[in-house]
């Protein structure tokens, strides 16, 4: 509501004109700022295969008509979604360990090898200038793996060793991301992604099978890791021209799927307790 009218000199008309003019210009300025902000955001989010953002309707029309733009936009959207989900995907696993105060069923080898793999893959993507949407999940997963390693070793009676491993892993990441570390070594490591995936996931799958239980493994985390690896196959095909990275994601999708099915199959089952040594009766 406007304030009570004032009178303009000899005129008998209320002086709403200046107030309405000011309100009009405020709205117009706000609209220009919002339009500029939306355009800058879309220009940063849209892949190079898509034209410059000029409006929502033209963008939808382009996506429906241009398959190249649609694939690139879908890949980038999936990549950003994976990065966002990666920041939460292992929190249920962390919560499961803390609540049960046990790391039973979790393979140390799996998390150590996985952490090493995330480290050099993150460094290789950064050094080669790939879009952040293709590697941001490595950074998020690494942070959660650091916490998991500390917890696993702490509940195994080796807290100092767990902290030392994490400090070493952080130092290794910093060294690999620096220009002093040979890029050729990183490329050679990514070429062995399939072997690393098998080395990191197979021990966990074998341990689950032998124990007849998945221990403290989180169903949400395992299913999420499988879905993430599967989605990464598409984003790698679209945005990253590297067959070794693609092969690694295919292997990860298969093995993460096996572990997720094991969690479903063994759900609610506990590993058999180790038999106690027989004690001799004294007469």
Automatic annotation (TrEMBL):
Topology within the bilayer: Multi-pass membrane protein
Annotated Gene Ontology cellular component terms: membrane
Location within or outside the cell: Membrane
One Pfam family, short name: PQ-loop
Residue intervals passing through the bilayer: 146-173, 179-199, 211-234, 246-266
The keyword Phosphoprotein belongs to this UniProt entry's keyword annotation: no
Domain of life according to the entry: Eukaryota
UniProt KW Transmembrane keyword: yes
Family: Belongs to the MPDU1 (TC 2.A.43.3) family.
Official protein name in the record: Mannose-P-dolichol utilization defect 1 protein homolog
